[in-house]
Amino acid sequence: MADPKTILIAEDSSVILNLTKKILELQQYRIVSAKNGGEVIKQVESQPIDCVLMDINIPVKDGMECTREIRRNADPRIAAIPIIAITGNANNYSMEQFREAGVTDYLPKPLDFDALVRVVKQYVG
């Protein structure tokens, strides 16, 4: 069997992080996490990541800033990672702003876990 795909969950709420992690582990994904934007960049540069679930409101560097930084990475494999924005204030951003930052797709909070699994499978398989 192929190695499990690795999903990076960038989320500062441990409740949301743990729920999301459990749901995706049940789908046989390997989960790594980051509590802030600084950790996100370290994680994507230190190991192969197949998809990032990016909370927009995380400390240090927000999700939009992290997304732009990932898209500018010199390694084409890193720059192309699918990034799914997760936000409780999607109304604060237009789809245009998400696209400009390099967001692949987005999910509103509170998270619909069926939609989460569907979107992750769409980009990661």
TrEMBL record:
Keyword tags: Phosphoprotein, Two-component regulatory system
Superkingdom of origin: Bacteria
SMART domains: REC
4-aspartylphosphate modification, residue list: D55
Residue span(s) of domain Response regulatory: 6-124
Family matches, as Pfam families: Response_reg
Name under which the protein is recorded: Response regulatory domain-containing protein
